[in-house]
Amino acid sequence: MKKFNLDCYISVEKGEIIFNLDTEIMEKITHNFIHISPALLTNLRWYFLNQKQQDSPLIFVSYYQEDPIIKTVIDNHITNQVYSHYLPKTELLKKINFTHHCLVEYVLRKIRISGILNINLSLIAGIFSGIIVILTLGLNFAKFMSLNPLFVLLPLLMWWLLQEGFKRIMVLFLPKFNRIIWRYLLLNKDIVSEKIIKFILTNLNS
Description:
Low-confidence stretches: none
Mean pLDDT: 78
Distance between the termini: 19 Å
Helix content: 40-55%
Largest sheet: 5 strands, mixed
Number of strands: 7
Strand content: 15-25%
Order of helices and strands: EEEHEHEEEHHHHH
Radius of gyration: 25 Å
């Protein structure tokens, strides 16, 4: 099923995440898989970091025909506000309310702080394993080969076993590693380059 792109419906403006709703998105959001571009996702995560650092709430506002309809404020608790001029239009308001909360849930899921960095575990484990094999065998490899040509399989076996071991260890510690990165970003956003932070935000699993 074709995914429905939300980029033209979501923006970040003046400390708020804005949903610009129309009939099309309200009809399609229940029938299509939805997605956003990596660029928009990075902007949303950047907004999240800014709000978190400033101890400010997350604010989501849905507009329909350029009128604000529903606002959701997430701090220590969740507050929803419906602008009264749309209260008489019950059916329309129900559709807007449903779409608004679907989008809020979707965005919160995408920008979650527990995102994991896209790290190629096999590549890193393979490099570390290769270095250890070279340092361990070194010049002695030629001596082993002179004793038995089958010793050529020894470094390959060592490399494979070490790689598998490193991968298992890295899987265990990767979540903690990511929490450390997030904590560092939150505490040092003023001194860490914005480009570096946005690169990390872009390379989180989505």
